[in-house]
UniProtKB/TrEMBL annotation, chain B:
One of its GO terms (cellular component) is plasma membrane. This is Sugar ABC transporter permease. It comes from the Bacteria. CDD domains: TM_PBP2. Belongs to the binding-protein-dependent transport system permease family. It is found in: Cell membrane.
Automatic annotation (TrEMBL), chain C:
GO terms for cellular component: plasma membrane. It comes from Skermanella aerolata. This is sn-glycerol-3-phosphate transport system permease protein UgpE. Belongs to the binding-protein-dependent transport system permease family. Coiled coil: none annotated. GO terms for biological process: transmembrane transport. Gene3D superfamilies: MetI-like.
């Protein structure tokens, strides 16, 4: 799924941090699993403390696993009927778990459908199957444009006015790119399909060029039209004709940006922490640029909490309470402060102190129009998009042909995995 | 040996009544007991299991489904598999001759050098002691485009055009192969030198007296006598190149086996199928192919090189 | 040194020899260039990484401090050391025990056992990693030292190597010990083993190196960072550093330096061991 480097500090924590109470005979103990990421683990420990203080009869055992192994661990234990009562899942895994009957629908008494759809951002609807919700997130992530204020200034651009449209983006990239004897020494914008650019292309550029990447259930690939090809052409032109970016420059886009050798990069909420350590220059965040008609789009993703099929009786009651607590406004505020991930509820996200935050604001604004791609195998689908781009960049294939081939490959993959 | 004679225990009972030969047999099987269990559980059983798994569809979640030859059909219809198959052979047919030619040339000349012999040998041998997964990162840095990459920086210093290396579908495979050749040279050189040392100097002296040229000595005496060394190194190197993984995995973490699968070897495809897609049956079918390829290559090489 | 020029092969010093020597020497320097640049970059501040000079203009240990602040490297080094040592000891013990039994005992089934063990050489470990992984999962060995070590505790290669060497041990020695009243285990351990010490050290060096650099199996079987071996740790560390080359080179230097220092101290011994294991195996 997502790469190891996103969990940088996290791996310091060992196999399991068990937070268990004294365990009186009447107490119900439920088990909660998530993956290791230092700030997430600490935030969850604080939430559990508060939850246990408010619910003296319930103890929550908090177990964590390293990110890389998390999916396997969850799958292996769930299939053996052991493991957690409440489990954190990547949104894209839901089908796998629902189909294998490893998770149960959220009981409607505690989680009425109308309330969910009113209070949460629409991206949460990806958790709905056959009219029932199966999981709820605490926090979500989206994409934004990071820009280097110093390079903007040097190029004569106003560092307070990041590009608002694709045209302005291209213009800013042209002004900020630096070449020396034919070699790029500093990019206008990073090009990194292995990073977040594949999401940018899929859910943002394709739509901005008038297309739709997939059918509503994401089971049919529909980007193999002119819109898809135009979107790809816009992206690959950044390297081939505009020469403002270069795939593989400094190996990774974020590395180039951090080294001060790229004026702009598109990345997610999870990159904020790493960029905050930059000392050599100031940077800003802007919403992803709109198209000429002012249409914007974004890609959002999230980790979500579900109740496993194993939870029954009083454990189920406890699990319901716990899940309601970790998806409450209070939990979301704590999560944003401690982890830096965005609240999934409108009322929290739209508080002025968050909306006007120069760093979080642009990410939050995107949540209203963000899309959630329902991947069947995110890594394999990313690979297909990456290969599509490489065929244009390295082998000179026409964008239309590249898009057609990618659509065929991706459709075959979806058909095989999701049948 | 310093035990006193006659200390032999005169035990009665079952053990005492056995003949020396019978005791020997019991000792032998006793010594072999743990190893036999080990080889059965850790080698033979998994081999059978791998064959069995290759006929199943299994994602670790549900019990395995027996699907006959479907994994093999899917594999042979998968263009990626054939690309990977081709890559694997490219690693072999470029890597083996290049590294053997280099190492033999170096060993042949180094064998005749006395001045600072130990130091020079050490220089060539050092890379062999490095860890492939670690050095892959060093090489990956070398191959970066300017301004980061050492090689491209040097090229632009002398006015040569930049090379894409890992960003090219043509150059990436040799670029990934280079550190593997580099790391293996030291081993091959010392083995060749040991082989050269084993040739009696009297052969050379006799040839000298007959006034035979260096070239003739090389082709008529040295090479034929070195044949066992060659056979060993060709098999050894071929198997290593067919199983290349560490370098590719670490040099292409952003686009594993890329760009466009141009560097992906079979072992990486196996790794991805098994541990990224949890497609255990399909991965097992690929391992069976790897096994057969290794088997055929070893047998062919052994017969070809032995007969001539 | 000059004395060895008496050897028939070396008694003529011609210009060709000087050229050959120079080329060999330069080739050797090229061979270690990657290591030199790795070291040099690890001693440069981040801003000087793109400076090509081999000798750092402003040498600093800040990268090393940063990497050690990360705190995981010492653990990874110890893990690798522990695993390679245990596996090596196990191989030295079991491979020679089996090699000895197959070389020196006459019993029915001996040939069958030998062929069976030898045949496992034909099975690539890559074919076994999936069953091993499943086995480790079922037995609860995932993410444990034992999980990393179990597949390599004995090898057919080592067994074959030791069998070759034990065959050169004269039977008379063993017979004499038998008459002295030693039991078979004592004969093997006290009499036969000391006679093949060079082979044992060759096997030990080869096994240790192989496990010290092993990557794919530890990568698959370990999941928590504390259990990573050095190669897996370095690989994951490098990915996490997100292409900060000065830190990656520092990590690589830390992973490489111990072996190089040991080699420089024990050069002859190690080369001889590798040759012996390579040629007889």
């Amino acid at each position: 799924m997502r790469r190891l480097r996103d969990i940088i500090g996290g791996s310091l924590i060992a196999l399991g941090i068990a937070v268990s109470g004294a365990g009186s005979a009447q107490a119900v103990e439920i088990e909660y699993w998530q993956y290791v990421f230092d700030t997430r683990v600490k935030a969850m420990n604080r939430l559990i403390e508060e939850f246990q203080a408010a619910n003296p009869g319930i103890t929550v055992k908090h177990t964590t696993f390293p990110y890389a192994d998390y999916q396997t661990k969850v799958i292996a234990s769930a299939s053996a009927g052991i493991g957690p009562d409440v489990v954190q899942l990547f949104y894209g895994w839901l089908d796998l778990f629902v189909n294998a009957k490893l998770v149960q629908p959220l009981p409607k008494d505690t989680f009425p459908t109308e309330a969910i759809e009113k209070d949460f951002f629409p991206i949460v609807q990806a958790m709905k199957r056959n009219g029932e919700y199966y999981a709820l997130p605490t926090a979500v992530r989206s994409l934004a444009l990071f820009y280097n204020k110093k390079l903007f200034q040097e190029a004569g651009l106003d560092p307070a006015k990041p590009p608002q449209t694709l045209t302005e983006l291209l213009d800013a990239a042209k002004k900020t790119v630096k070449m020396e004897s034919g070699n790029m020494v500093s990019a206008g914008i990073t090009m990194d399909m292995a990073g977040q650019d594949h999401q940018w292309w899929r859910e943002v550029l394709v739509r901005q060029y008038g297309g739709v990447p997939y059918s509503d259930d994401y089971r049919k690939v529909t980007y193999n039209d002119k819109a898809g090809a135009d979107a790809l052409k816009f992206y690959t032109d950044l390297q081939t004709s505009e020469k403002v970016g270069q795939m593989g420059f400094m190996d990774e886009g974020q590395a180039a940006f951090r080294a001060g050798r790229a004026a702009m990069t598109i990345d997610g909420t999870f990159r904020i922490g790493s960029f905050k350590t930059i000392k050599d220059f100031e940077w800003g965040v802007a919403e992803l640029p709109a198209n000429a008609e002012g249409m914007r789009s974004n890609y959002a993703s999230y980790w979500t909490n579900a109740i496993t099929a194993k939870a029954k009786g009083e454990k189920l009651e406890a699990a319901k309470k716990f899940l309601a607590f970790v998806s409450s406004p209070k939990a979301m505020e704590l999560w944003l402060d401690a982890v830096g991930e965005l609240p999934a509820r409108r009322e929290v996200a739209q508080k002025p102190q968050y909306m006007n935050d120069p760093v979080y604001g642009p990410f939050l604004k995107a949540l209203d129009y963000s899309k959630v791609t329902l991947f069947v195998d995110e890594q394999a689908q990313r690979q297909i998009t990456m290969d599509m781009t490489n065929r244009v960049l390295i082998q000179g294939q026409e964008p239309q042909a590249a898009v057609d081939q990618a659509a065929k490959e991706e459709q075959a993959l979806i058909d095989r995995v999701a049948k | 040996m310093d035990e006193t004679i006659g200390a032999e225990p005169r035990r009665r009972g079952l053990w005492g009544r056995l003949t020396l030969r019978q005791k020997q047999v019991i000792w032998a099987w006793g010594f072999l007991a743990i190893p036999i269990v080990f080889y059965s559980v850790v080698r033979f059983w998994p081999t059978i299991d791998a064959f069995y798994l290759s006929f199943t569809k299994w994602n670790l979640l549900q019990p395995p489904d027996f699907i006959g030859l479907d994994n093999y059909r899917r594999m042979f219809a998968d263009p990626q598999f054939w690309q990977v198959f081709r890559n694997t052979f490219l690693y072999l047919i470029i890597g083996t001759p290049v590294s053997l030619l280099l190492s033999f040339t170096i060993a042949y000349h180094l064998d005749r050098v006395r001045f600072m012999h130990g130091l020079i040998r050490a220089l060539y041998f050092l890379p062999y002691l490095t860890t492939a997964a670690v050095m892959a990162w060093v090489w990956r840095w070398f191959y970066q485009p300017a301004p980061v990459g050492l090689i491209n920086d040097m090229l632009s210093m002398v006015g040569l055009p930049q090379q894409p290396f890992l960003r090219s579908t043509v150059q990436a495979l040799p670029a990934v192969l280079a550190p593997a050749v580099w790391a293996g040279l030291g081993f091959q050189i010392v083995i060749f030198m040991a082989g050269l040392r084993a040739i009696p100097t009297s052969y050379y002296e006799a040839a000298r007296i007959d006034g035979v040229s260096n070239w003739t000595i090389l082709t008529r005496i040295t090479l034929p006598l070195l044949k066992p060394t060659f056979v060993f190194l060709v098999v050894f190197a071929s198997i290593a190149f067919l199983r290349i993984f560490d370098q590719v995995y670490n040099m292409t973490t952003n686009d594993p086996g890329g760009p466009l699968n141009s560097t992906k070897p079979l072992v990486l495809m196996i790794y991805q199928s098994a541990f990224n897609s949890f497609d255990m049956g399909y991965a097992a079918a690929q391992t069976v192919v790897l096994f057969l390829v290794l088997l055929v290559i070893s047998l062919v090489q052994l017969t070809v090189l032995r007969d001539r | 040194m000059a004395a060895s020029f008496k050897d028939a092969r070396f008694n003529d010093v011609r210009p060709g020899k000087v050229i050959a020597w120079t080329l060999l020497f330069l080739g050797g320097v090229v061979m270690v260039t990657p290591l030199l640049f790795m070291l040099s970059t690890s001693l440069k501040p981040a801003s000087d990484v793109y400076d090509l000079r081999l000798i750092p203009a402003r040498p600093t240990l800040e990268n090393y401090l940063a990497v050690f602040e990360d705190g995981r490297f010492p653990g990874w080094i110890l893990n690798s050391l522990f695993i390679a040592t245990v596996v090596t000891l196990s191989n030295v013990f079991f491979d020679s025990l089996v090699g000895y039994t197959l070389a020196k005992f006459k019993f029915r089934g001996r040939y069958l056992v030998f062929i069976a063990i030898l045949s496992t050489l034909m099975i690539p470990t890559e074919m076994l990693v999936i069953p091993w992984y499943i086995m480790a999962r079922d037995f609860g060995w995932l993410d444990s030292y034992w999980g990393i070590m179990f597949p390599g505790m004995m090898t057919a290669f080592g067994t074959f190597l030791m069998k070759q060497f034990f065959e050169t041990v004269p039977d008379d020695f063993l017979e004499a010990a038998r008459i002295d009243g030693l039991n078979e285990f004592q004969i093997w351990w006290r009499i036969a083993m000391p006679l093949v010490t060079p082979a044992l050290s060759a096997l030990a060096i080869f096994t240790f190196l192989g496990n010290w650099t092993a990557f794919i199996w530890p990568l698959i079987v370990t999941t928590s960072a504390e259990l990573y071996t050095l190669p897996v740790g370095l690989s994951s560390f490098s990915v996490e550093q997100a292409i900060r080359w000065e830190l990656i080179m520092t990590g690589a230097s830390i992973a490489t330096l111990p072996t190089l220092v040991i080699f420089i101290v024990l050069q002859r011994f190690i080369v001889r061991g590798v040759v012996k294991a390579g040629l007889k195996g």
